[in-house]
Automatic annotation (TrEMBL):
<feature type="compositionally biased region" description="Gly residues">
    <location>
        <begin position="197"/>
        <end position="220"/>
    </location>
</feature>
<dbReference type="InterPro" id="IPR002539">
    <property type="entry name" value="MaoC-like_dom"/>
</dbReference>
<feature type="compositionally biased region" description="Low complexity">
    <location>
        <begin position="167"/>
        <end position="177"/>
    </location>
</feature>
<feature type="compositionally biased region" description="Low complexity">
    <location>
        <begin position="221"/>
        <end position="230"/>
    </location>
</feature>
<feature type="compositionally biased region" description="Polar residues">
    <location>
        <begin position="180"/>
        <end position="189"/>
    </location>
</feature>
<protein>
    <submittedName>
        <fullName>Acyl dehydratase</fullName>
    </submittedName>
</protein>
<dbReference type="Pfam" id="PF01575">
    <property type="entry name" value="MaoC_dehydratas"/>
</dbReference>
<dbReference type="InterPro" id="IPR029069">
    <property type="entry name" value="HotDog_dom_sf"/>
</dbReference>
<feature type="domain" description="MaoC-like">
    <location>
        <begin position="242"/>
        <end position="309"/>
    </location>
</feature>
<comment type="similarity">
    <text>Belongs to the enoyl-CoA hydratase/isomerase family.</text>
</comment>
<feature type="region of interest" description="Disordered">
    <location>
        <begin position="157"/>
        <end position="232"/>
    </location>
</feature>
Length: 336
């Protein structure tokens, strides 16, 4: 039976990050067991117009009377943090990798609406690189769901020592592998599971494009038109600016020292900022109802220059952000 936790006010994220820091204390471990069967709710959440305007400026959205598709994710983020830093949550927050995100907009949401938010964790399971789970968030208006977000996170397992070489003669040929760790191909999460966290040194999300691999955002058969690509010049301040409007103050995005602690030479952009900025580039070309799936690949080191491309498809759009490495790929389709 699902236990419901009703919050009367926003929990904030400062205390959640303090609880998350406990995971860095030697000897402090999480259970590693099942996900808590808990749903965190907050009712009648209204939007602060000045905060919305600041979010729009940071992400590149126009100021309108409807919420950007990624904004409910920001509203629900403190609830997700409350859930993921609870004592009974099996995995530590510090070190999680946000590998994919799916958002479904059922209809435009007025910026003056009072939303009922809910968040729960689902689908804990094994992954070739560790353990993964989903955070499911919903927003309802007048009792009807108007928005749904599914974020998939990965907890990387410690590297395993290489096995001793087998000196036994063997004339049988080993089968060719095409998994995500194979140089011959890439392995993506199923789209239904594709989903604040940090990446390890040079880590890409599952499904990082290998030679010849086509992930979400690659032009498929029947593509109608492709853009030549536009250059994004991403300043270093994007990390701190987005942290201020999103509540995701993970130091890997805001501090050179924090980034170095996780193996990066400088801060990296938030994955959800790259998704929001990509959707801002598609404003005016999206229907009232749609689903947008993205996979986060190589982290985008700040400051950065990267190329954003879009492709019109029979079902909607595909898009990608890349420099010398792919950073994000995504598709827009009808609502699912």
């Amino acid at each position: 039976m699902v236990a419901v936790v009703e919050l009367s006010a926003g929990p904030g994220t400062t205390a959640a990050y303090a609880r998350a820091a406990l995971g860095l204390i030697p000897g402090f471990t999480r259970s590693g067991g099942a996900l808590p069967d808990v749903e965190v709710r907050r009712r009648d959440v209204t939007v602060d117009r000045s905060h919305l305007a600041a979010y729009d400026r940071v992400c590149g959205f126009r100021l309108t009377d409807t919420l950007p598709p990624t904004y409910p994710h920001v509203l629900a983020f403190p609830l997700a943090m409350r859930l993921m830093t609870a004592p009974d949550f099996p995995l530590p927050l510090i070190g999680l990798v946000h590998i994919a995100n799916r958002i479904t907009v059922h209809r435009p949401i007025p910026s003056g609406a009072a939303l009922d938010l809910s968040v729960r964790a689902t689908a804990l399971g094994d992954h070739p690189r560790g353990r993964r789970f989903d955070i499911l968030a919903t927003a309802a208006l007048d009792g009807t769901e108007v928005w749904r977000g599914l974020s998939t996170y990965l907890r990387l397992a410690p590297p395993q020592p290489a096995p001793a070489p087998d000196t036994t003669p063997d004339t049988a040929q080993a089968p060719e592998t095409t998994g995500e760790d194979s140089p011959n191909g890439s392995r993506s999460l199923p789209s239904a599971a594709a989903g604040p966290g940090t990446a390890g040194p040079g880590a890409a999300g599952p499904g990082a494009a290998g030679p010849g691999a086509a992930g979400p955002g690659a032009a498929g058969p029947g593509a109608a038109a492709s853009s030549a690509g536009s250059e994004w010049r991403v300043p270093a301040r994007v990390g701190t600016d987005y942290a201020a409007v999103s509540g995701d103050r993970n130091p890997i995005h805001t501090s050179r020292l924090g980034a170095r602690l996780f193996g990066f030479p400088r801060p990296i952009a938030h994955g959800m900022w790259t998704k929001a900025h990509a959707l801002a580039a598609l404003e005016g070309r999206l229907p009232d109802a749609y689903t947008v799936d993205v996979t986060f690949r190589k982290p985008l080191l700040l400051p950065a220059r990267a190329t954003f491309t879009t492709v019109s498809t029979p079902d909607g759009w595909s898009f990608a952000l890349a420099s010398s490495h792919p950073h994000l790929t995504g598709i827009v389709t009808g609502p699912t």
